[in-house]
Specification:
disordered C terminus, 5-stranded antiparallel sheet, 5-stranded mixed sheet, DNA-binding, alpha+beta
DNA sequence: TCTGGGGTCCTAGGACCC
DNA sequence: TCTGGGGTCCTAGGACCC
């Protein structure tokens, strides 16, 4: 058997300190200053400018723990504004698609792109052109790594992050060993906390050592994913680019509360309102859910009031995306798992077994279902037009005392068409 | 005393990613 | 006082069947 083996060129484009860069776009005064963006509920630090990193502020660090450094160094702090970041992300991806319409949007701030049709000589300058175009058109700085596999392009990107040009290609490097040797095993894509521990125990401390370990050993002692990672380090592509955007399989809405919740009614409100969010989300993607899970828990960090965590899943008789039905099921579960006497910190709802809506009609659908579907659609339309939660269910509450903290919001809303300034043509 | 074997399907939990 | 949220995939083990 013979086959043609051609070398792929995979680029990973990654936005630098993405959330911070988004905030900076609308606030030039903080360009050269240390900036951090906080997670929901102003809990943790999830994006840092280089200046903030240099101060020793760690990724994922609780905000209250870093507060001293932050105040002392006048670090600018922002609550997260996901509609802004989502909007800018779409702009970046749209710009990227001009270079190759087939990209894999891997996360809000990253995309893989196949650049195999360019020659080895061109590749680095193509990378630089992509980078400068994105910067010019969207204002977002990026780093670009190019290599023969996704895993290697992650490493290339890692290196590019530290370079002035922001672009690194490993394509025409014959022997990658000296480079891989400098990459810490925990920095390899697909190697998390547990695997790092395991590899270190077996004398593997860097990417080169993993690359040189036999597949048989890796598969036996770990799993297929790990052996794929090793193959990719050797320059053999095992993880395909996922161009076609596939439909999601689950949908989660969960939040920590702004303050601890003790009474059932408030918890019910929160859960009901998460249900409305989740069902609207799956409706907008024309999906229906087979089952629903509710979970509640007290803080895992403060157990002095006792710790309680529980969850339960039930199946719907017929897959659904109807808010009313979903809230009803959620409340039933909640009644079952709620226990008095605890200070709840977080609750969440998960819709699973998602499938396409059009397969939904069956023996049991009725005229009533049709009416409910129409009602849901008009609620969604109204909320889209007049702002989120214009129409809601009474069970979701009005005052939402449990709502999350968001004390440092920049309040920029590019996604809300109606909050844009109006200019009248004369 | 001695208590099949193998296949499939489902689920919960763990590990990973951003 | 204060510790995020949303995904995917894999695996082990149980249930069930013949």
């Amino acid at each position: 058997m013979s086959y043609i083996r051609y070398t792929k060129k995979i680029a990973l484009i990654d936005c630098n300190s993405f959330y911070v860069s988004c905030e900076r776009l609308f606030n030039p005064k903080i360009r050269k200053k240390p900036v951090v963006v906080l997670s929901n509920n102003d809990g943790c630090i999830i994006s840092r400018s280089n200046e903030a990193k240099a101060l020793g502020i760690k990724m994922g660090e609780p905000y209250f723990k870093a507060k001293n450094i932050i105040i002392k160094n006048n670090v600018q702090v922002f609550s997260s504004n996901y509609s802004l970041y989502g909007d800018l992300s779409r702009r970046v991806m749209r710009t990227l698609k001009r270079f190759n319409s087939e990209i894999e949007v891997y996360s809000i701030d990253e995309a893989f792109m196949d650049l195999s049709n360019f020659t080895d000589d061109e590749i680095e300058s193509v990378g630089k052109e992509i980078r400068s175009t994105i910067l010019q058109w969207t204002g977002i700085p990026t780093s670009i790594g190019i290599a023969k596999t996704k895993t290697l392009s992650k490493i290339a990107n890692h290196i590019a992050k530290k370079k002035q040009s922001g672009v690194t290609s490993l394509i025409d490097i014959e022997n990658l060993d000296p480079i891989l040797e400098k990459i810490n095993i925990s920095d390899v894509w697909g190697v998390g906390k547990q695997l790092t521990k395991f590899y270190q125990k077996n004398g593997i401390y860097n990417a080169k050592q993993l690359k040189n370990k036999s597949n048989a050993w890796i598969k036996k002692c770990s799993n297929v994913l790990s052996s794929r990672t090793a193959m990719e380090l050797r320059g053999i592509p095992c993880i395909d680019l996922e161009i076609a955007s596939s439909k999601r399989k689950s949908c989660v809405v969960s939040r920590s509360f702004g303050k601890r919740v003790e009474n059932f009614e408030e918890l019910k409100e929160a859960v009901a309102s998460y249900c409305l969010n989740a069902s609207e989300k799956i409706r907008s993607e024309s999906l229906v859910a087979k089952s629903i899970t509710i979970f509640i828990r007290t803080s895992p960090f403060q157990r002095n009031f006792g710790y309680y965590s529980n969850s339960k899943t039930i199946d719907f008789p017929i897959a659904t995306n109807n808010s009313i039905e979903i809230v009803k099921a959620a409340v039933l579960i909640l009644e079952d798992i709620f226990k008095h006497g605890y200070r709840y910190q977080k609750a969440g709802i998960m819709l699973t077994g998602l499938s396409n809506e059009n397969g939904k009609k069956n023996l049991f659908s009725s005229e009533k279902d049709e009416k409910i579907n129409k009602l849901m659609k008009s609620i969604d339309k109204t909320n889209y037009r007049y702002g989120k939660s214009t129409l809601s269910l009474a069970s979701a509450g009005i005052y939402k005392k449990w709502n999350m903290r968001r004390e440092h919001s920049s309040k920029i809303d590019t996604a809300d068409f109606y909050s844009l300034p109006k200019i009248k043509a004369t």
